[in-house]
Amino acid sequence: MTVVEPTELLKPAPAAPAVDRRGSGLARLYARRFLRNRLAVAGVAIFVLLVLFSVFGGLFTPYAYSDADFAALTQPPSAAHWFGTNQGGNDIYASAVHGLRRSLAIAVSVSVLTIVVAAVIGSSAAYFGGRVEKATLAVIHFLLVVPSFLILALVSHRLAGDWRVLIVVLTVFGWMSTARVIWSVSTSLRERDYVTIAEFMGVTPARIILRHIIPNLGSLLIVNLTLGVVATVLSETALSFLGFGVQTPDVSLGTMLADGASTVTSAPWLFAFPAGLVVLLTVSMTFVGDGLRDALDPTSTTGAAGGRR
Fold it and tell me: Which residues touch 104 (CB under 8 Å, ≥6 apart)?
């Protein structure tokens, strides 16, 4: 039988391993600051409703966006056609659902791709420095002064307005400003201790950029990703409105605005419904972007004060 010494009974129990709650605590802090901003919460709600409308809105109408009702040409909203019809007899409600889905797909895809390209190029230029940094900044500054809108219009028009090509073209000409901002912030990150230690341990430059520099730009990337959706929606709408973006038989919010612009007085519903969707989309994402910026910025007084605007 094992004899237990009395002194052993008085020994304190081993302490439980400490749990690092820093990440979850920061997440709760950011979420609390974001939820205090009423406009940001309203923006999220509006954006979610728009996404649900684009995905499931077609279930509530028997018409497809390409169907033509020749017995109801340019008809105002009615029980048969909730948003009315256009000159070709197409149901505006079905076209709005498809157009919003197409515009959202373009905007989100371009915003994500732009952030990825800008993060890699901007942080790489800052990390390597020297000739690589000078050459990268020279290319960025040159592309910033190029009339990109004209090039976008010509390229997309020549390629028949395919929305997938439009995503590529908008990405190619949309990363420069964000990359320059990321470069300016990354110049301070490359001097941090964790980067120096990683270099001393023989970690490759690509791994340092992807694992140590870009993750520390998270708040900046998130805000720019959100606001990038707004910029892309406006760019796509402008191109399609001028006939250089999405082309028929496909439909986007820009093409619907172009179709309804000439009949604002005689058939206002052709312009009003897609214009309303564009306004709701851009305003909601602007509110979300502002709310994220306030929540992630420790010096922000708006987020701390509860977002009273």
Answer: 50, 51, 54, 281
Between 8 and 63, the higher pLDDT residue: 63
163 confidence band (pLDDT: 50, 70, 90): confident
83: nearest Cα among 53, 42, 55: 53
Q: Which pTM value belongs to this model?
A: 0.81
Radius of gyration of the chain, Cα coordinates, nearest whole angstrom: 26
| Rounded Cα distance, 136 and 122, in Å | 8
Instruction: Look at the block and give the residue holding tokens 């070709």.
Output: 88
Residue 47: predicted pLDDT: 94
The pLDDT score that the predictor gives to residue 234 is: 86
288 C-beta neighbours (distance < 10 Å), count:
26
SS3 content of the chain, % helix, strand, coil (to 5): 70, 0, 30
